C-alpha cells in the first residue's frame, strides 16, 4: 500500500513551560532550530518525503508564528486543492470561544476533516520531538504485523526524562507488553515518540468513545489505557536514528550544539531526506576581513567580522569586529555589535547586544535573551 | 481566456554564450550560476516581479533543459500565477513547417500570437545575461509620459570602452537621434543595455515589416531600431545609473562575482524591498569546521569548509577539505576541493571534483576553468587561463 | 501611483444576529451567494482586479469556513511569498485566550503585519457589503483631493436601513461636512460603505491613539469622530454601481433574487472584473428529460429533472422529477427529491427535502432550512 | 538538483489531429474542448495526479501556444510543484543543430536528458487524445509485480473493429507474444490504448538502438515494441475495462460528447475521489431566461439561454438567444447562437457566432462544423457535413 493512503495529523498543543521565554509567543512546533528551520519542519518534511500528501496541523494557543511559517504549505508541495496542508485552529463559534482541552478534544472537534479526507490510515504525531524519518517501513511493518496500532519508539537517551514520558516493554514480535507513565526512573529504555499509526476508522472510533467518557488526552487517556487492555494489539516500531525532545531550554540548547557534530548533522540533513522550510531569499553569508569562525553553522544573510566558536548563527545575524562568541545560539536578525563577548547564550530573534557588552552564562543553564531585546 | 495586461515582458534567454567557453557547453547562458546562490536569469525575473510585471515570456532555444527545470512553475519569483506568470517559449511548428529563432527580433516575431493573448499596450524586451537591479515600472511611466514609440535603457560607459557598445546619440531631451553599433569614433558614451519598452502596435508593425525583408538579420539593434529611426518614430533614452554588468565572458563572470566581495558591495543584495529571488537548494546552513578559515568571502548554505577560503564565492553544497585552499575563485554548486588542493583565480563549475593536492590556476594571469562534473585527478596541474572540459 | 502601493484589510467580525441560522457556523464574509460565491469573493476580487497585491483578512469568531474558503489565496493569485493573502485570526497567546473586542482592537493586535507590509496606503474594508469595484479611480481622486481619508459611499436604497448605518452630507468638492449615525430615518442619501482609503502611517497613528483611549470600533469611535473634528479632511467617493448589504435573512434573499435580473448580474459579473472563488471541479449542470427551468441561475454539478422558476441553484444541487421550486435559494449539495414543492425558501448546504415534501413561506420572510437538515 | 521519482509520465501531446479538420487548424488536438468544460488533455493529466504520478513531461510540437497557456503553471491539476509538476517540452536545439520530433519514440528519445534528471525506475508513456479514467498506479503495481520490461494497457474492442487497431496477441498469462498493427484478419480483439509503462533502463536501450537505425520511423508501435518482441523481452498486457474513447475524428468527438447525455453516463465525472480537473473559466452560474428551454443537455457556467437547447453540450460563456434552437450539438466556449438560428448535429467552435436565422447542420447526416471565431452571416445555411473555416 502506498503512503499516499496515509494522512498525517500533527498536534501542536504540548506543554511548554520549561521553555520559558522561548515559547512565550510561539508554539514549540514553531521554535527556530538549526540555523534556518522550525521544529515542525522535520516532521512535515519527513511525512512528505515518505509520500504523505495530506497533513493536518492542529493549532492550539500561540499559533500565529506557526501559521505564518507553514503558510499555504507550498514549501512542502502541500498546496494543492486536493489534499495538502490543513491548518486546524481551535473552533471559535458564536457560542464557543475556546481552546482545546487536549489532543482528544482537538481531534474530536476536527472529526469533519478526518471524515472528509480520503486516506484510510492516520499517522498521529506530536510536534516536540525533532527527527527526520521515512515512515514507509513503519507502514509496511504495521501492515505485516496486523497490529491495531503501531507506536514509534526510540532507545535514545535524548528522550529519557525522570518523572516524565512513556516507556514500553516490547517483546520479540514487536508487541508492546507493558507500559510505564512518568516513572521516577524509567525501567524500560524504549521511549515513546508519540507517533501512532492506525486505521482512520479505528482512530475516529477511539476519539468518539474517548470524548463520550470525558477524556481529554489521546496519548494518556486512550492509547496508554489500550496498551493495558486485552484484545487490542499495540506494536512498537523502533526508530534508530537521532532524535531530540524539545521540552526545556537546556534540551533546546543541547540540540542546537549537537547539530554541529557531523554525525548528527548528516543524519538530520541528507540528500534523500531534505528538510524543507520557509524560504527567505537572503544572499549568501558574507565573511569580512576580520572574521575568524570555527566549528560553527552559519545561515545565509549573516555578515560576520568577529570571532565565533562552537555556535549556531541563524539567518541575517550580524557579528561585529572584535566580538567573541562561544557556545551560543543566535536567532534570526540578531545584531552583535563590536567587541561584544557572549558565552553560553541563546538570543531570540532580533535581539541586539550593544558594543562592548558581555554575557557569560553557565553551560548547564544558558542565558536567554528575549526577542527584540536590546542590551 | 487570458486577462488583459498593460505590459508583457519578453525575456531573450536563448543566448548560446559561446564566449563563456566550456561553461555554456551544457547550459544556456542565463542559467549560469552567479553570486553564490543565483543564476543570471534571477535578475531580470526578480526585476519583473518587483516591478509588478507579472507576465514574462522566456524565449529559449539553445540548451533549454536546465532553464526549463530551473524556472519550473515560476514559484521562486512569485510567477506561478493563474492569470499570467512565466512561460517558457521555444520555437514551434506552425502549419507544416517550423523554424528556429534567427535573431532577437525574429524570436519576438514568432511569438506575436503569445503576446496578443494578453492584449498589452506595451512590451518590455529584456535579455537574460546582465546583472542589475532596475524598476521597469519607472521606465514604463517614463515611456508613457513621453508618448514614446520605444524607450531604450542606456547607461554611461567609460569613453574608452564606448566603441564596444551600441551607442545612442541623444539630444538634450533624451530623444535618440542616431544609433551606432560599436562606433570607431563614438560621439557619445550612452550605451544600450538591451532593455527596450515598445508601444506594442508600433513594435508589431516593425516586426512584420522586418520579417518580410529577406536581407534582414532580424535583430533589434541592427534592424528594428535603425528602421524606426529612419521613419522618425519617437525613440527615447532612459538613463540608468545603477550597477550593471554584462557577464558575457569568463573574465567578466569572474569579475562580477569578485565585485560582491568589495566593501561596500556595488549592488545591494540585502535590500528587502527589492529581493533577488532564486530557486532555493533547501539545504542546512553551511559549516565551518574547527580548522576552517573563511575571510572576505561569500559562502552559502550546504557548504562544509575544513580548509581555507579567501576572497572567493562558494555556491551551495561545496566542500573544501582539510589543507585545501581556495583563493580569488568561484566554486559552483556541489563542487569538491579535496585535501591539499590549491585553487586560485579559477572558476570551478557545478559538480566538479578537484583531486587531492591538485593545483588549479595561478595567483596572477587569466582565469582557469574546470567544467561541469569534471573529475580532476589528484596532483593534476591546470595553468592560468586553461579550460578543462574532461 | 500604482495600486500595488495599496494594501487591503478586510475586517470580518460584523454583527450577524439578523442572519439567524445562516451565520450560526460561519462569518457573514463566508455566506454562500449567487450560486458559487461567498460574500468576501467580491471584495477580494475587486481588490485584486484593481492591482492590490497584499490583502489581510481579520478573522473573528466562526472563521473556519472562511479560512477554508480563502485557503492560500491561490484562486486570487495571492499566494506569493512576497505580499499575498494574510489570514489574521485572533491572538491566542499563553496569557490571552481571546476574541477581538472590535475592529480597532483587531487592527491594534495586527500592527506588526501593518508595519511589515511595504505598501504606503491602506484600503480598510468591512465584509458585509457585496459590490464589485475597481478602486483605482478612488485612489486617484484621493490623491488629487489631498484628503486625509476618503470614504466610499453609495446612494443605493439597498444600503439604507432605519436606525442603522452611517450617512453623510458631502459638499460639491467631495468633502464630508456632516454625518449621522443610526438615524431613525436617514436625512442624507449617501450611505457609508465602510471602505476607507488612507495612508498607512495615518491609520497606524489613529489605531494607536484609539487604543490608548480605550476605543474598540474604528468606524464609530475613530472615523466618525474625526469627521466632526476640525482639521481632518474626510472626502467621500461615490460608488454608483449596484451594491447590497448582507445584514438580514431578507436582504440575503433579496440579493440572490436580484442577481437573476440581467442588469444586476452583468454589473456584478463582467469580463473586465471577474469574480474569483474556490474551484470545485464539478462537471457541467445536467438537465434531464423532465427538466423545466426558467428565470433561474444554475451552477455546475447540478442535476435537474424537475420544475424550477425564479431561483438560485448552487453547485451540486439535485432536483427530482416532478418537484416544483419557486423563489428559492438552494445551497450547495442540497437534494430535493421527487414531487417536492418549495416556495420562498432558503436551503442551507446539504439540506435534504424528502419526496413529496411541501414548504411554502411568505415572500417577505423566507423559510430557512439549516445545513445538513433532512425534512 | 531534482528529486528522484519512481515513475515519470511522458505525455505525447504533439498530435496534429488532421482528421479533426478545421478544429485543429489553430490548436493542438489535446487542447480541443470536450464535455462542456474539459479539454482532452485534462484526462491524462487528471489521471496522473489522481494516480500520484507528479512529474509529467508534455511533449508538444504542433501549435503549442494554446496548450502552453492552458497548462500554465499546472495548478489546476495540482501539478505546480517545487519538486516535480508538469513541464512543457518542445523540441530544442542541441549543440549546433536541432530537429523536430520525427515520431513518438523520437520525441521521448530527444528528452532522455529530461527524464534522467529524475532518475526514475519506470516511465509511463501516454497520449493526449483519449477520454478515459485510469489508475496508472495499479498498472505500475502490475508491471512491478511481474518484473515486466514493458506493460501495455489493452482493451477489448468489437471483433469487427479490431482491424482498425494495434492488436496484442497474448497467452493465458497476458504475456504479449505478437503485435499486429491493423491486422486484416485479427487473431485477437485486445487493442493497445497507447498507454505504456517501460522499465526505464530497457526503454533507454531500445530508444538508443532505434535512433541509430536510419530506416526506423521512430514509432513505439512500429519500431520499439516489435524490436522488444524480437528480442523476447517481457511484454505484458494490462486489461482495462472502463470507458475509453479516441476522439480522433469529427464524428468521434461529437459522439464522445453525446455519450455524456446518456443515462447512466458511460463515464462517471461526478466521482469525488477521481475528479477530472481543468482550468476554470471563473464565470457566474449559467442563466436560463423565462423563455428558455433546456432538456437532456449539459450546460456549464457563464452561459445564457434565452432559446431552446436539446440534447446538446454547451461550454462556458455560450449564449443562445431568443427563438434560437440548438439540438444534438456541441457548442464550444463563448460561441453565440443569435435570434432564430437553428443548429442541429453540429460542432460550433470557440468564439464562433451563428448569425440570426442561420441554419447549421441537419437533423440527419454528417456533423456540420463551424470553425473558431467564424462569424456566420444572418440567414446563412451550412449543410450537414460541411465545415466552415471563414
What does this structure look like?
Chain A has 375 residues and is an alpha/beta fold. Chain A folds into 2 domains: 3-268, Alpha-Beta Complex (Spore Coat Polysaccharide Biosynthesis Protein SpsA, Chain A), CATH 3.90.550.10; 286-369, UDP N-Acetylglucosamine Acyltransferase, domain 1. Chain A has 9 helices and 24 strands. Chain A has helices at 39-50, 64-70, 103-109, 111-116, 136-145, 200-212, 218-228, 249-258, 262-268, and strands at 6-11, 32-33, 37-38, 54-58, 84-88, 121-126, 129-130, 149-154, 166-170, 176-181, 190-199, 234-238, 244-245, 285-287, 292-298, 303-304, 307-313, 318-319, 324-330, 335-336, 341-347, 352-353, 358-360, 367-369. In chain A, strands 1, 4, 5, 6, 8, 9, 10, 11 and 12 form a 9-stranded mixed β-sheet that branches. In chain A, strands 15, 17, 19, 21, 23 and 24 form a 6-stranded parallel β-sheet that branches. In chain A, helix 2 links the parallel strand 4 and strand 5 (84-88). The longest helix of chain A has 13 residues, at 200-212. The termini of chain A are far apart. Chain B is α/β, with parallel strands linked by helices and 390 residues long. Chain B is built from 8 helices and 33 strands. In chain B, helix 6 crosses helix 7 (220-230). The N and C termini of chain B lie far apart (50 Å). The mean pLDDT of chain B is 91. Chains in contact: A-B, A-C, A-D, B-C, B-D, C-D.
Fraction of residues of chain B in helices?
10-25%
Give a count of the beta strands of chain B, DSSP E runs of length 2 or more: 33
Strand content of chain B: 25-35%
Oligomer: heterotetramer
Q: What gap, in angstroms, lies between the N and C termini of chain A? A: 56 Å
Overall 3D form of chain A: globular
Global shape of chain B: elongated
Question: How large is the count of helical segments of chain B?
Answer: 8
SSE class of chain B: alpha/beta
The average pLDDT score of chain A comes to 89
Main sheet overview of chain A? 9 strands, mixed
Largest sheet of chain B: 7 strands, mixed
The Cα radius of gyration of chain A reads: 21 Å
Pick out the low-confidence regions of chain B.
none
List low-pLDDT spans of chain A. Answer: none
Amino acid at each position: 500500500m502506498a503512503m499516499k493512503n496515509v494522512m498525517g495529523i500533527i498536534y501542536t498543543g504540548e506543554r511548554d513551560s520549561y521553555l520559558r521565554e522561548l515559547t512565550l509567543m510561539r508554539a514549540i512546533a514553531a521554535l527556530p532550530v538549526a540555523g534556518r528551520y522550525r521544529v515542525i519542519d522535520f516532521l512535515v518534511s519527513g511525512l512528505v518525503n515518505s509520500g504523505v500528501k495530506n497533513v493536518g496541523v492542529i493549532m492550539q494557543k500561540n499559533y500565529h508564528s506557526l501559521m505564518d511559517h507553514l503558510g499555504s504549505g507550498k514549501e512542502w508541495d502541500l498546496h494543492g486543492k486536493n489534499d495538502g496542508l490543513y491548518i486546524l485552529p481551535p473552533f471559535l463559534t458564536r457560542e464557543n470561544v475556546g481552546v482545546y482541552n487536549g489532543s482528544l478534544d482537538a481531534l474530536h472537534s476536527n472529526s469533519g476533516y478526518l471524515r472528509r479526507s480520503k486516506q484510510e490510515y492516520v499517522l498521529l504525531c506530536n510536534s516536540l520531538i525533532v527527527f527526520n524519518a521515512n515512515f514507509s517501513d513503519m507502514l509496511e511493518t504495521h501492515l505485516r504485523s496486523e497490529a491495531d496500532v503501531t507506536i514509534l519508539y526510540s532507545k535514545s537517551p535524548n528522550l529519557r526524562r525522570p518523572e516524565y514520558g512513556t516507556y514500553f516493554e516490547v517483546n520479540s514480535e514487536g508487541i508492546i507488553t507493558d507500559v510505564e507513565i512518568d516513572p521516577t526512573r524509567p525501567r524500560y529504555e524504549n521511549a515513546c515518540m508519540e507517533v501512532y499509526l492506525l486505521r482512520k476508522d479505528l482512530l475516529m472510533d477511539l476519539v468518539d468513545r474517548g470524548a463520550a467518557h470525558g477524556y481529554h488526552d489521546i496519548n494518556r487517556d486512550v492509547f496508554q489505557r489500550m496498551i493495558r487492555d486485552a484484545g487490542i494489539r499495540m506494536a512498537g516500531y523502533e526508530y534508530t536514528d537521532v532524535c531530540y525532545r524539545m521540552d526545556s531550554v537546556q534540551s533546546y540548547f543541547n540540540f542546537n550544539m549537537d547539530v554541529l557534530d557531523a554525525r548528527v548533522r548528516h543524519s538530520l540533513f541528507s540528500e534523500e531526506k531534505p528538510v524543507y522550510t520557509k524560504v527567505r531569499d537572503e544572499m549568501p553569508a558574507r565573511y569580512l576581513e576580520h572574521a575568524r569562525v570555527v566549528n560553527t553553522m552559519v545561515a545565509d544573510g549573516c555578515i560576520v567580522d568577529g570571532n565565533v566558536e562552537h555556535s549556531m548563527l541563524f539567518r541575517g545575524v550580524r557579528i561585529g569586529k572584535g566580538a567573541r562568541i562561544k557556545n551560543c545560539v543566535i536567532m534570526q536578525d540578531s545584531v552583535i555589535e563590536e567587541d561584544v563577548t557572549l558565552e553560553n547564550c541563546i538570543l531570540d530573534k532580533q535581539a541586539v547586544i550593544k558594543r562592548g557588552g558581555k554575557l557569560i552564562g553557565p553551560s548547564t543553564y544558558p542565558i536567554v535573551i528575549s526577542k527584540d531585546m536590546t542590551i | 481566456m487570458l486577462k488583459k495586461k498593460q505590459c508583457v515582458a519578453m525575456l531573450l534567454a536563448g543566448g548560446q554564450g559561446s564566449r563563456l567557453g566550456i561553461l555554456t557547453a551544457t547550459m544556456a547562458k542565463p542559467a549560469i550560476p552567479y553570486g553564490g546562490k543565483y543564476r543570471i536569469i534571477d535578475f531580470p525575473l526578480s526585476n519583473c516581479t518587483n516591478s509588478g510585471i507579472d507576465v514574462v515570456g522566456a524565449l529559449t532555444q539553445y540548451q533549454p533543459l536546465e532553464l526549463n527545470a530551473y524556472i519550473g512553475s515560476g514559484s521562486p519569483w512569485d510567477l506561478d500565477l493563474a492569470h499570467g506568470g512565466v512561460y517558457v517559449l521555444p520555437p514551434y511548428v506552425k502549419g507544416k513547417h517550423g523554424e528556429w529563432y534567427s535573431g532577437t527580433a525574429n524570436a519576438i516575431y514568432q511569438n506575436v500570437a503569445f503576446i496578443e493573448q494578453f492584449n498589452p499596450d506595451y512590451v518590455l524586451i529584456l535579455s537574460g545575461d546582465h546583472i542589475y537591479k532596475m524598476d521597469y515600472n519607472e521606465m514604463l511611466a517614463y515611456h508613457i509620459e513621453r508618448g514614446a514609440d520605444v524607450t531604450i535603457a542606456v547607461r554611461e560607459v567609460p569613453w574608452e570602452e564606448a566603441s564596444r557598445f551600441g551607442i545612442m546619440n541623444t539630444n538634450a531631451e533624451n530623444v535618440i537621434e542616431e544609433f551606432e553599433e560599436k562606433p570607431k569614433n563614438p560621439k557619445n558614451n550612452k550605451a544600450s543595455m538591451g532593455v527596450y519598452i515598445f508601444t506594442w502596435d508600433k513594435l508589431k508593425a516593425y516586426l512584420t515589416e522586418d520579417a518580410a525583408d529577406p536581407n534582414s538579420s532580424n535583430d533589434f539593434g541592427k534592424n528594428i531600431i535603425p528602421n524606426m529611426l529612419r521613419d522618425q518614430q519617437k525613440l527615447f533614452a532612459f538613463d540608468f545609473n545603477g550597477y550593471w554588468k554584462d557577464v558575457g565572458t569568463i573574465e567578466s563572470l569572474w569579475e562580477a562575482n569578485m565585485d560582491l566581495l568589495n566593501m561596500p558591495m556595488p549592488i545591494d543584495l540585502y535590500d528587502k524591498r527589492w529581493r533577488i529571488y532564486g530557486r532555493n537548494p533547501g539545504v542546512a546552513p553551511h559549516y565551518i569546521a574547527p580548522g576552517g578559515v573563511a575571510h572576505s568571502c561569500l559562502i552559502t548554505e550546504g557548504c562544509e569548509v575544513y580548509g581555507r577560503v579567501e576572497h572567493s564565492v562558494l555556491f551551495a553544497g561545496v566542500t573544501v577539505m582539510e589543507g585545501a585552499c581556495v583563493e580569488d575563485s568561484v566554486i559552483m554548486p556541489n563542487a569538491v576541493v579535496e585535501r591539499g588542493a590549491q585553487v586560485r583565480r579559477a572558476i570551478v563549475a557545478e559538480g566538479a571534483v578537484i583531486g587531492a593536492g591538485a593545483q588549479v590556476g595561478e595567483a596572477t594571469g587569466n582565469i582557469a576553468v574546470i567544467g561541469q562534473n569534471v573529475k580532476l585527478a589528484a596532483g593534476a596541474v591546470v595553468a592560468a587561463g586553461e579550460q578543462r572540459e574532461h
